[in-house]
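INTERNAL TRANSFER SHEET
From: sequence group
To: structure group
Subject: G_PROTEIN_RECEP_F1_2 domain-containing protein

Please process the attached sequence and return the structure record in the designated field. Keep the field labels unchanged so the import script can parse them.
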Amino acid sequence: ISRNSICGDGTDWQSFLLLPSRLAQNPLYGQIYALWLTNLVMVFFPFLTLLVLNSIIAYTIRKSLQKVKYNQRFQ
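Return from structure group:
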């Protein structure tokens, strides 16, 4: 945060400027954070989680159906 020199007395919110830090200005940080980390968290991780959970559900249903078929043979 820095003071806006155009505004004289600096008593209201318009007298301050919000500037990015040196880290945020670094292009490597922008590429790694904005591109790769954001894609991992917002795209790949949710799909991977859905894939794993759906696989567990499908495996559980398949085992349950096999048990039902096995139990129906002996009734």
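Handover comment: Residues 27-73 form the longest helix (47 residues). The mean pLDDT is 86.
Transfer complete.
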